Amino acid sequence: MPVRCLPRRLPALLGLALLMAAGPAALHAKDVPEPVAVAADFDAAAQAGALLKVSEAQLLKGLRRVAVPQFSVEFITADSASAETSGFAAAGRARVTASYRLQGVAEPEFQAMTEALYVEFLQALAASGLEVLPLAQVTAAPSYAKLAASGVSTPVREDSSITVAPQGLALYGTNRAIATAPGKSAGLLGTFSGFSSVASAIGSIGDVQALGKELGDAALLEVHMVVNFVELTNNNKGFFGRISSTASVGAKTAPSVGKATLGVQVGAVRGSLELTRALALDASAFSTVREQAKSTGEKAGAVAVAVLAFAIGSKDSNSSSAMEAVADPVRYREVVGGGLGQVGQMFVARLKSER
Predict the structure, then answer these.
(1) How remote is the C-alpha of 237 from its chain's centroid?
(2) Do residues 19 and 244 make contact, with C-beta atoms less than 8 angstroms apart?
(3) Where is the signal peptide (predicted)?
(4) pLDDT tens digits for range 122-136
(5) What is the pTM of this model?
(6) Which one, of 174, 173, 153, lies nearest residue 163 by Cα?
(7) Which DSSP category does 193 fall into?
(8) Residue 256 CB: number of other CB atoms within 10 A?
(9) How far lies 228's CA from each of 142, 174, 279, 341, in Å?
(10) Which DSSP string do the residues of 319-347 spell out, in sequence order?
(11) Which regions of 187-313 does DSSP assign to beta strands (E)?
(12) What is the pLDDT averaged over residues 43-70?
């Protein structure tokens, strides 16, 4: 769903000529690889080799005993993007901002989904031939108590996301640093919080190594995944985008697994398995996309396109659109839970193939 804002026409056709000569490929350079669609025939085991990047692969050789002391999922609940033209001569600048918020599902659904995924992941690890230590044994270890005390409890609530973990598991070290990254909190206090998280991650390394020893030299597996609900694209990136006569933000509302990492700690060495391309999930998880009500007394209605305003009488124009993606709770859990489960299966399959 493109969100557009048009300034006054350029007095010359130079910009338009350059735009047409360059072609759309020059305007929409890909910053990230195209997502992989997860259809009914998606084969996690077959895709694990192509979609997961492995670092320190030697750590996985002969892997036998594992524990999963960290398992977190970050659900993005709000997102926004802006686009702006540069303007030439008498032409004004155009700026448009699109904001989206997730509705229909919230923390209870996120928590229940993550709990189920954690159990499924442990079962899949065991079915692959690994000895998987139970959660009670992990959390009873002295070093785990130190790590939990240095970390943060879940859920971690931010303005634009909620990070959850199974009951009884805290976020520490790397996972804490990710969940409380500096960019999530505005201002100086947010920056200090980010420094604190990174310092905590560095300081916890000794306790992480000690935890593995206390658990019989088990490899420690730490999972973190991120679920998006909308893909926003600034269509005015780059030189040719900036000289366009239109400021445009593209929006595609559909759930996706944007990032997923499995950290593997074996003794003093750490490796990882990382998802290299996002997984695009079924858009039927959302029942409607609508314009957000501007006041408590105004009813939000479903819309096909955003209605934008111009700054009449000014060279510059600014427009904004606030939208809501409304999820069907049952369908959302099926689609998103299934997508996250596919990532878990890929992790397990790759661990097995590397052993």
Answers:
(1) 21
(2) yes
(3) 1-29
(4) 999 999 999 999 999
(5) 0.80
(6) 153
(7) H
(8) 24
(9) 36, 21, 10, 15
(10) EEEEEEEEE-HHHHHHHHHHHHHHHHHHH
(11) 219-234, 247-266, 269-275, 279-280, 286-291
(12) 96
